[in-house]
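As agreed, record minuted below.
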Amino acid sequence: MILRFAVLAALAVVCAGVELVAGRGMPPGVALDVLGGGGDVTERHIFWQLRLPRTLVALGAGACLSVAGLALQSALRNPLAGPEVTGVTPGAVLGAVTATALGLAGWDSPLAVVLAACAGGCAGAALLWLLAGRGRGDAAQTAVHGVLVSAVLGGLTAMVLLVEPGELGSVVQWLVGTTEGRVWQHWHLLWPWALVWGAAAWLLAGPLTLLRCGDDTALAAGLSVRRARTLALLCAVALTAGAVAAVGALGFVGLLVPHLAVAVFGADLRKSLPGAALAGAVVVCGADAAAQLSSRLLAAVPDSGRLTVPVGALTACLGAALLLVVVRRTPSRTF
């Protein structure tokens, strides 16, 4: 088990290293020179003030989304429950976009963005909970309602963007998910939020493990099912909101990475929750490194301008392909 954690930690370091040297604007050799203490003022600014916080934000956001996804899937006993398909992510995006459009939040007030995203995520989760009704235990039915809720919230977000297109500008990045332009302010906002709510989720590892076994088993063990589920959902919504406020809606990270974590670390969430955090950090940071490498290759194409590949587009495409492969290989399973 320790070896598995060590391997994931090593992968995270490798992905972070690749991302630090892979971006546009500075050759890898120059980035390595800056890392060793060299480089001019501009090169040091690019490396220490732009690339490093971007890498840290990618690692933190991936960890948040993966832990949130595992908490959701365990609390709802639904392998299809993830921030992307339970209304949490689109609700958080809608909250952030609406608050920005109303002038209540913006990049000059990042805490307001997080609070607005958290409120929107809670509203999205509550809407799904109400619509699912008595069918909450049915994974397929909950997934269908989740898709409907996500579509409705996405439509509302599009309406807000149409009503206030001039004031929102780059807020469209929340719809796709990107780490472009992330600076130390984003990291200083994300890490304490992730630490507090991640620790809260880990403290709920025992109750969540019981919930995975079913409500009857949890009740027989003396667990207050309603309270434990409510606290777990609160942690999941808060972690998702923090990640969305930092990088936008990264598709499929919170849905598929938890399955990988459980497969590697087992069903005991005291181990698989930290494992999910590490795996999510590796996936998002690795995807961002790949996106930056792709953007570097695109720069060599004539008339490409400053075209960049957002990490959210990459995670969505790869996640959808992986989900299709899993479903085709296990047609008899719900997942």
Notes: The radius of gyration is 20 Å. The CA atoms of residues 2 and 247 lie 30 Å apart. The chain has one domain: 1-300+307-318. The mean pLDDT is 84.
